[in-house]
Amino acid sequence: MSDTPAERYLVCLDGSDNSHRAADWAAALAARTGAALTLLHVVQWDGHAWTNAAQVAQLPDLHEQLESDAWEYLLTPVQTKLHDQEGLSDVDARLVFGKPAECVGEIAEEIGATLVVAGTRGHSTLVGLVVGSVAHRLLQVAKRPVVIVP
Question: Residue 15, CB half-sphere, CA atoms under 13 Å: how many?
Fold first, then answer.
């Protein structure tokens, strides 16, 4: 018999209050079902947006700083909270660079997520009226069940 959980939920984090509520909701569900959690933060990244050599030269430093900040201020604290305060033993975290909805869909497939959990609206400057633009796009591209937590 395997100790691998039958279910794994992918939780989208962007640092917004909505994404923290989504993480709390997923944690409560995981506590009841025994599911594992994977926390995912996607740094929206378009390498083609850089227009001159000086900007391109700064990309490695910027990339490293964004990654470091995401782990220090978002992923590690949430992972620790879910493990220590919520008592969840199987919580891992990932960080990727790219287009958020598309990356979430790809990671969900890669890890075999049984559920994707996201907040309604995040830190995007283009916020939809009811559902944020990334959440809306995720509903279009995901091949896994998606729960959008208000």
Answer: 12
Give the mean pLDDT of the chain. Answer: 86
Instruction: Please name which of 35, 37, 39 lies closest in space to residue 5, comparing C-alpha atoms.
Output: 35
Q: Are 100 and 112 in contact (CB under 8 A)?
A: no
Instruction: Classify domain 8-149 at the CATH topology level.
Output: Rossmann fold (3.40.50)
Phi/psi for 20 (5° steps) reads -70, -40
Number of CB atoms found within 10 A of residue 17's CB = 11
Distance CA 99, CA 132 (A): 14
- Count of residues for the chain? 150
Please state the pTM of the whole predicted model. 0.85
Q: Residue type for 36, please?
A: A
Q: CB-hemisphere CA count at 13 Å for 40?
A: 30
91-98: strand order across its sheet: 91-98, 36-44, 8-12, 115-119, 146-149
Query: Which tokens go with 15?
Result: 């640092």
Query: Predicted confidence band at 6 (pLDDT cuts at 50, 70, 90)?
Result: confident
